[in-house]
Amino acid sequence: MSDPIIFKAPASRRAVLAMGAASLAAASLPPVHANPIRGTDLTQSPYGGGNLPKGVRSRMIQAVNSLDVHILEAGYESPGRPLALLLHGFPDLAYGWRHLIPILADAGYHVVAPDQRGFGRTTGWMNGYDGPLAPFGLLNMTRDALGLVSALGYRRTAMLVGHDFGSPVAAYCALARPDVFPSVALMSAPFPGPPALPFNTAESEAPSVQSNNEYQKLAAALAALDPPRQYYQQYLSGRQANDDMWHPRQGLHAFLRAFFYVKSADWPGNKPHPLKGRTAADLAEMPTYYVMDLGKTMPQTVAPFQPSAAEVAACKWLTEPELGVYTEEYDRTGFQGALQAYRVFSDPDLNAELRLYSGKTIDVPSLFIGGTSDWGTYSAPGALDLMRTKATTRMSGVELIDGAGHWIQQEQPARLGKLLLDFGSMQRE
């Protein structure tokens, strides 16, 4: 994902009050856990079907900010190792870090990658479109990370890395608790800073009220293009998106294969570049998996780019057995838990709490890493420059890795590992 271009349907005061009442009612109920895999006990079901690298284990950490968190970890045998915490994005899992985890563990870290709230084998979140959205807010997901660090017996991380949606979570970790997260590496989604409060409005004739008109106008402008288009976050926030992706016509495995392929450096159509602005015409320069043809589902959008059998066989960073892990996990849970965070992140009303940090910068050492074939770096026009010039004060650089699209940690783990280890070494000097 990237910093959102926000699209939001108008909500009545009654609807807002109803949402609050529903959230309070839900808070008094026991959590609805993600459905267990075909009724089996997940604690007895081996993770990854034998496709975990040597030295990487799967286990559950109980009672972390109302969650039971599933993690992959390595380097746990030796006490006292510095902690490296890796936060994945959409539609990824802790499993997405499998190639990187051994590299960092071999360098002396205790490496931990959780399934984030709403994903994979982490339970304790309510699975359904009409469930409360507040638990999926960025600050609560920041508390998830903070609670996990504490549960593991650490006072601070030595390395914090966030990819895609994990990037804003990691950014708020560093923003809110620099004592616990004293450095941060952001991947694929630049962080433009927290939302601003209206400034110097005391003498205005009327209070400044944040309006969604500009976002509705942009949605209308995209729909007016030829052919009509729709921003992907608008689609992912809709009620139908989960079922579309969970039960696609081509099958879940084929859909996931096409989705991972088309956003990788393997697809020759990925030639990202900075966009001039946030107009409909500017955004329409991006591939259809970012700015979709209006009326098409995501599985329909990526289906024409299905890789051939030879291309699948040549894909060493995501083999068929490895993709099978994703297929099995998402077949069990569906996508709605993962999509709830999109719905929160793209709604300014639900993100009002982020204004607590208005004007605050990330003041710990930071690094941004993208892939040269990843549109995520530019999909929110201006975010990269804002991150470098305003949102951070100690950014060591912007690194773009050749031969990588969106899935950097899978496509180029060795190059990524070197960048992260060099960045970590700088913090210890």
UniProtKB/TrEMBL annotation:
Pfam families reported in the protein's UniProt record: Abhydrolase_1
Keyword Ribosomal protein belongs to the record: no
InterPro entries linked: AB_hydrolase_1, AB_hydrolase_fold, Epox_hydrolase-like, TAT_signal
Segment forming the signal sequence: 1-34
One Gene Ontology term of the molecular function aspect: hydrolase activity
Domain AB hydrolase-1: 85-220
Assigned keywords, A-Z: Hydrolase, Signal
Name of the protein in its database record: Pimeloyl-ACP methyl ester carboxylesterase
Organism for this UniProt entry: Rhizobium hainanense
